[in-house]
Amino acid sequence: MANELVQPDRFFLNRFGLNQRAFERILGTALERKADYADLYFEFRSAEALSLEESIVNKTAKSISQGVGVRVCAEDRTGYAYSDEVTVDRMRLAAETARAIADQTANPGAVQVGTRIPGHELYAIQTSPTEIPVREKVRLLEEIDREARAVDPRIKMVSASFAAEDKVVMVVTSDGRIAADRQPLCRLNVSVIAEDGSNRQSGSFGGGGRVEWGFFLEDERWRQYAREAARQALINLEAIDAPAGEMVVVLGPGWPGVMLHEAVGHGLEGDFNRKKTSTFSGCIGQRVASELCTVVDDGTIPNRRGSLNIDDEGTPTRRNVLIEKGILRGYLQDRLNARLMGVEPTGNGRRESFAHIPMPRMTNTFMLAGDCTREEIIRSVERGLYAVNFGGGQVDITSGKFVFSASEAYLIEDGHITRPVKGATLIGNGPEALTRVSMVANDLELDAGVGTCGKNGQSVPVGVGMPTVRIDAMTVGGTRAA
Amino acid sequence: MDPISTEMGEWVLDEARRAGASAAEVIMLSAESLSAGVRLGEVEKLKSARERRLGVRVFTGQSAATASTAELERESLRRFIADTVELARLTAPDPYSGLPDPDLHPRALPDLDLADRAHGIIPAEQALKMAREAESAALKSDPRIRNSEGSGFDSGIYELRFMNSQGFSGSYKGTSFSLSTVVIAEADGTMQRDYWYSSNRHFDRLESPEAVGRRAAERTLRRLGARKIKTVAAPVVFDPDMAAGLIRALAGAASGTALYKRASFLIDRLGHQVTSPNATIIDDGTIPGLLGSRPFDGEGLPTRRKALVEKGELSSYLLDCYSARKLGLAPTGNAARGVGDAPGVSPHNLYLEPGPYTPAQIIGSVRHGLYVTELIGFGVNSVTGDYSRGASGLWIENGELSYPVEEITIAGNLKDMYMAIEMVGNDLVWRSSVVAPTIKISEMTIAGS
Question: Domains of chain A, with CATH numbers?
């Protein structure tokens, strides 16, 4: 299979006996009524997962899925039909179903496809991690187990898992373009339980991306993951109740960038702004953050989990500046919303699989580095919270209220980091939160590569990043009166 | 060959045996659905889907591997099965793994009224009409409702067949229908959004489009003018949907998987008091017509009614065969199974039994406190029970809902919160497979300004 996969666009033609004529006929069927645009999205995905519990790799799984989605767009209407049988008959049926949203008959010109759209080469890998022998992966998970347990006798439970997928996609559009890509993706996760008497705490860490198996062996990354998971659980054994109320919050570098994803990222997606349902609707050119803040969404960073050579509508990804020195500059667009808003697509049209309609989505979202140091930021805080690791977050894009939950945090007292506190949810208001950023450090980091974003029931892999920042006021949802 | 026939299943089990498996299971699913969406009265989306998938779990002695595929031609299936058996051989033997005790498989399967006999996929015209009526009811109800995220109607039919190499074979067909509306209200330059939905296996039992739309509008309007409040410790009343979330968290901690991984705050609590005596929590996969009902679980064991919590005492865990063996207990028929996944654990229809109070009586009992109608974020730690989530709702003053609040959090520890369930409402409605009536928790920390 490896060689067959090397040329993604040939892959579907060979596998399903399709040709350009067939695409043209099906797109022609799709456009028989009065529609603006139609496309076909082909996907083949093979995936594998292994997991270790109680020191043995006792769960292994693999899956193969394939299918085609046919989409017809007319003004702001979308017709979509998909099938997991990739045959000309099925596609024609899907095209007839999808075009039902366009009601008048029209006399369209013939569709001609053939313009190959070159994408980037952000993750040209030699061997897909799915093709590495299972035994080798089993051995690594077993080593991770030993490593995490060796950190401290209080580490009682270790779970480790490796998941990899190899996805080939091809988009054929009614304006004649063909774009194809092979998208490898994998992640390695470690989670542990530490126990001290009746006090039981968890810790977890992981990483990955569009990388080869060797990524996890480089600099012994796997060992760092194991140690980091153990460290977090042990820290949490010492944690006291988190404070409750509004206070200064310092966010550490890397994964705390999930704050940007929730506070501004979702609110800047084109669909919500076209419909004027986002708290950021109509705010282009306005100040939405302090001038220390420049936020970008960049789908072109090599080997990153959130990166793509082309988005799921065949548009090459790019680096989009969302907020520049505090001023809102742009939204994230797919083709439909870009067309309706009269702007260019930004390479952010993404979907979970062939069973889903594309939407504007983030890729890798982060804030650029500032000038001060992390130490200066900590020293500047008399009383506050220093949060360095987070679980997930969520946002109501209409009211702008967003949350993200700290899994490792400390009190700052008189300019020093003092005691660890239990996990707590932080809540803020999107358009206000970044205006309260008063210091940005020079230590930008991207996350280790485990993020998944959910929107309208669709999950896609994403990245986040941030330097250490100081936010002058944010509500911390602990239990201890501050 | 029909991809979900007994014949197909037997062929797959035979192939697995020929490839060297000592035991095997096969699960076959076929599903069709149609989703229709409108926004501001116009068609926005029509989505039609058709899927067939086949999954297997094969054993070579005590080693197991799971796999799924949508390539159903014999030649690819044969290769797929052989690869899966090979994967099992590379998996560590686990003394707790294996098929269920064959005596536990049911001899006959009950008819649980899972499929609407009169309705299948609702045609696009009718689906769009219902979605449009629901949205229009919301938009018409008040001039402050000025925008919409849309209204949707979905219908689906599916058929599932599950067989194993020790002779169990079962299948069922089901239907589902749902109608939802999300609208936006504006006043004084601020916007609020809320929703309502109705979901059922039977088309005629859905709430009317009018009712769904009006309820979405009411819920949205009452959020306008929301403010932040000062940090305080106070009683918190959970509306039925939010209360259901607390019950789901308890089921998660009572699941065998969490327990043997020591990732639960309910370890060693069987037979102990874990909630106030006001709470009785039941899981029952056998109630005819409900969304979570099914005649057998993901390993072919019969589903049944069991109390998780009886007047405050933890009386059962939720177990599949693997976690049951690990914990030295009997399985409870709660194996959950996606086509491509190894069995996990899940409740079927989980509910908190209704209590004696009307919602008005519960709210009336609170001098100053929060009525919570929405919770966001993932701040629930099932290992420790620590709970901290973003909240919005209405502030209660002297027993009455007085003004909307937002940008606050509620926090506590689930172990304490369950013990502090002071009142349970009489307003249980089966809107989903996990439901609860209104409940009052006597005190939590509410963080605001």
Answer: 8-237 (3.30.2290.10), 243-481 (no CATH)
Is residue B308 situated within a structural domain?
Answer: yes
Whose CA is closest to B229, among B11, B85, B393, B442?
B393
Is the minimum CB–CB distance between A424 and chain B shorter than 8 Å? yes
How far is Cα A179 from Cα A5, in angstroms, rounded to an integer?
Answer: 15
Contact A65 B88 (CB under 8 A): no
d(CA B309, CA B352): 9
Calculate mean pLDDT across residues A257-277. Answer: 95
The rounded distance, in Å, linking the Cα atoms of A334 and A345 is: 5
DSSP B337: -
Residue A276 with chain B: CB contacts under 8 Å: 147
Cite the DSSP H helix spans in A8-133.
Answer: 8-16, 20-30, 88-98
A-chain residues within 8 Å CB-CB of B44? 76-78
Give me the domain span that covers residue B425.
226-449
Q: Express each pLDDT in A68-103 by its tens digit.
A: 999 999 989 999 999 988 889 989 988 888 888 887
Locate B357 and state its tokens.
């109070």
Residue A27's contacts (CB-CB under 8 Å, 6 or more residues apart) are A38, A39, A40, A95, A111, A113, A172, A173, A174
* CB pair distance less than 8 Å for A424 and B383: no
- Is residue B169 domain-shared with residue B297, that is, in the same domain? no
Chain A and chain B share a number of CB contacts under 8 A equal to 246
Task: List Cα–Cα distances, B67 to A50, B32, B47, B83, in angstroms.
Answer: 12, 22, 28, 9
Strands A243-251 and A480-481 turn out to be parallel
How far is the C-alpha of A474 from the C-alpha of B443, rounded, in Å? 23
Q: Which residue of B has its CA nearest to A83?
A: B50
B445 contacts A481? CB cut-off 8 A: yes
Phi, psi dihedrals of residue B131, rounded to the nearest 5°: -60, -40
Assembly ipTM: 0.93
Q: Does A159 touch chain B (CB under 8 A)?
A: yes
Same-domain pairing of B213 and B200: yes
The residues, ordered by sequence, that sit 6+ positions from B407 with a Cβ below 8 Å of its Cβ are A401, A427, A428, A429, A475, B226, B228, B390, B392, B448
Q: Whole-prediction pTM value?
A: 0.95
